[in-house]
Specification:
Blueprint: H1 2-15, H2 31-48, H3 129-132, E1 149-152, H4 153-161, H5 173-178, E2 189-192, E3 204-207, E4 209-210, H6 212-219, E5 224-228, H7 232-239, H8 255-267, E6 270-272, H9 277-294, H10 298-308
Parallel strand pairs: 1-2, 2-4, 3-5, 5-6
Length: 318
């Protein structure tokens, strides 16, 4: 504004030397007053140049980015000390929603804040319906399903690259926990791969489960994946054998786990578990039946099986 006043006073002095021009501006320091002064100066310049607008107008004032005159605070930028740093992350704290009885913006228990007939779940003292019915069909099993500890194949590759896992020897779940590749093995390690990412190292690894992509990626470079069944006590003895004077024996898996181990075998993994007695007897029966069908009297044996409808009977595995 001051530069504009000087420019205006200089032009009036050059045009009308006999008229004394006041240095101080008679208008207030507002945007409208500045616009009026600029328009009046342009008119005087056009009249002095013979009706042609002047092209040599001064450039608008641009403050330096480090100038404290136009900053939000007077704290200096340099030197950088602990007391002149700006907290750019601070924002206004929003409203807390859905926090139940603690806040006035709750959503789930807002009907309980009212009493009597005004509540939406009032049933005249009876147990309300929203408490009688489960939230979903298997709500009682929430938090009770055993979940294995996941291990990404890319993280395993990173630990091998850093030298924290040795590929010359089989990698067990104890090696994964000791190297901190898996922070803590609770029920077993599950190996998985994202987007079929390739794996460049030939390894032999023992885990509790693995998906099809990780098995294919390791077998593509000549490695192998062994799925080992260990119940809770056997897994603890495997991870911390110094806690046992005599190592416990490995338990036999149940029907569901045996079916799962056979599925892992069909995926291409090597499975290792103690077969239950009923499975051994079932395998013997199937082998005997297969030898009979491949023998000389195979046609008659097959005809008897069709007549007795023995082939329709399902095995124990289903």
């Amino acid at each position: 504004m001051r530069s504009l006043q000087r420019c205006f006073s200089n032009r009036l002095t050059a045009l009308f030397p006999r008229i004394e021009v006041m240095t101080a501006s008679p208008w207030r320091n507002t945007a409208g007053s500045a616009l009026k002064a600029r328009c009046f100066a342009d008119q005087v310049a056009i009249q002095s140049d013979g009706g042609v607008p002047s092209r040599a107008d001064p450039e608008p004032f641009r403050p330096h980015p480090m100038s404290l005159r136009f900053a939000y605070t007077t704290t200096p930028f340099f030197p950088i000390w602990r007391n002149n740093l700006r907290d750019l992350w601070k924002r206004k704290k929003g409203k807390r929603l859905g926090k139940g009885m603690s806040g006035d913006k709750g959503l789930y228990w807002r009907s309980k804040r009212q009493k009597g007939k005004q509540t939406r779940t009032w049933e005249r003292g009876n147990f309300p319906l929203f408490k009688r019915l489960p939230r979903w069909p298997e709500a009682h099993m929430r938090g009770k399903r055993p979940e294995l500890d996941p291990l990404n194949l890319s993280k395993l590759r990173y630990f091998i690259q850093k030298g924290r896992l040795d590929t010359r020897f089989p990698i067990t779940q104890r090696h994964l926990q000791d190297s901190r590749c898996v922070k803590r093995v609770k029920l077993g390690v599950k190996l998985f791969n994202v987007n079929d990412f390739p794996f460049p190292y030939k390894i032999d690894i023992e885990v509790a489960s693995a998906d099809q992509s990780s098995i294919d990626a390791i077998r593509a470079v000549g490695g192998s994946v062994t799925v080992v069944y260990m119940e809770k006590v056997a897994l603890r003895a495997h991870l911390k054998p110094w806690k046992y004077e005599v190592l416990p024996r490995t338990a036999r898996p149940g029907l569901k786990m045996t079916t799962y181990m056979e599925k892992m075998k069909a995926r291409g993994a090597i499975v290792r578990y103690i077969k239950p007695l009923w499975l051994i007897e079932e395998e013997k029966r199937l082998q005997t039946q297969l030898r009979e069908l491949q023998g000389e009297d195979g046609v008659q044996v097959a005809r008897k099986m069709v007549e007795s409808r023995e082939y329709v009977k399902k095995t124990i595995l289903g």
